Amino acid sequence: DMADLLSVTGLVKKARDMFPNRKFDQLIQNAGILPTKHSLSPQGHEIAFAANVLGPHLLLRKMIDEEVLKEDGKVIFTAGDLYITLKGTGNVACTPDFTYLDRKGGEIAYCRSKLGVIWLFLQLRERFPSLHANLVHPGVVDSELVEGGSPAPKPLLISNEEGAQTTLILATECTENGAFYHNTMGKVIFSAKDPANNPQKGLELWQLVEKLIIGYL
Question: Which PANTHER family does the UniProt record give (predicted)?
């Protein structure tokens, strides 16, 4: 359960115990839930933040600290472009205390969390330059991400198999370190006005999640 920090620490321990003499070459951060109603993680954080942002961050940091991941390993973060819908609203943020009442609020929580993933990815590039880090938008996949189906129109959806292709390419091919790859547009560079291009917000989020996981490292 990526939303439960104790579960994440248990996963790293199990991986270390199973492969005591080996390190992982890659980590693909593909966790993602879109809640239909507000709920909290076992540690009391809003569930989309917990599962999509905080748990994956702890997983990566613990794998680094405990040398489960190779120093020059490849880390792929799954993002999405729905976060752009937050532009011009009061929701250009990623926090553990966001509250909402319905599915629409859950969609906003999801977008906030995916914006947070991008901010943390950009911070990671600077803090762990030995890692080979990429960000990927796999497409809008017709999956069970949300109960009742994706909010996107059916004609825009791709299958799970199609959605895996861009990530598989990044995992198996030589890619530019630190780059963002989109399933239809290729390499993407954030514009100056893009909500993702906000180093101060990224720094604040990094400091926040580091504080929240300190007792689990």
Answer: NAD(P)-BINDING ROSSMANN-FOLD SUPERFAMILY PROTEIN, RETINOL DEHYDROGENASE
